Amino acid sequence: MLPSLKAALALLSLLQLISSKPLTTTSPKLKLSEITHRIQQLNSGVQVPCNDTRVAQVAFTDRKLSDQELLCQAATALTQVKKCEKDYEPFIVNLKSLHGQTSCSLSNENEIYLRNFLPELGNFTQGMYRRLAMLAAQ
């Protein structure tokens, strides 16, 4: 029983290590998929980390803004979450690598709770994933 217990602990430690690492994929489709998946994981938990934190609202449905601008705004909004910075760092890293901009404009005039922001971000990234998949299929 002792060897199986050691193996179980080793596996648990490995899983914890892997889940704490920032996302390192290179494909935009994979990055979008992983962002969506991580949001689903956070939402399936007991409580979203720092769910009562207010962040700037991103107008994901604004057709006048490019996808890169919206991704940049989402990354900027998430950088406002200082208390749970480690939980959201993988999102920020991937969002920044997807938009490729150094800065963007984001008004703090309208704010939204993080627990409401994450599903909006998930819907947006899932939509981008689908559009990329359709373009690749053509």
TrEMBL record:
It holds the Pfam family IL4. The keyword rRNA processing does not apply. SUPFAM superfamilies: 4-helical cytokines. SMART domains: IL4_13 (SM00190). One of its GO terms (molecular function) is growth factor activity. The keyword Transcription does not apply. InterPro entries: 4_helix_cytokine-like_core (IPR009079), IL-4 (IPR002354), IL-4/IL-13 (IPR001325). It comes from the Eukaryota. GO terms for cellular component: extracellular region. Residues 1-20 form the signal peptide. Keywords: B-cell activation, Signal. One of its GO terms (biological process) is B cell activation. This is Interleukin-4. It comes from Strix occidentalis caurina (northern spotted owl). The lineage of its organism: Eukaryota, Metazoa, Chordata, Craniata, Vertebrata.
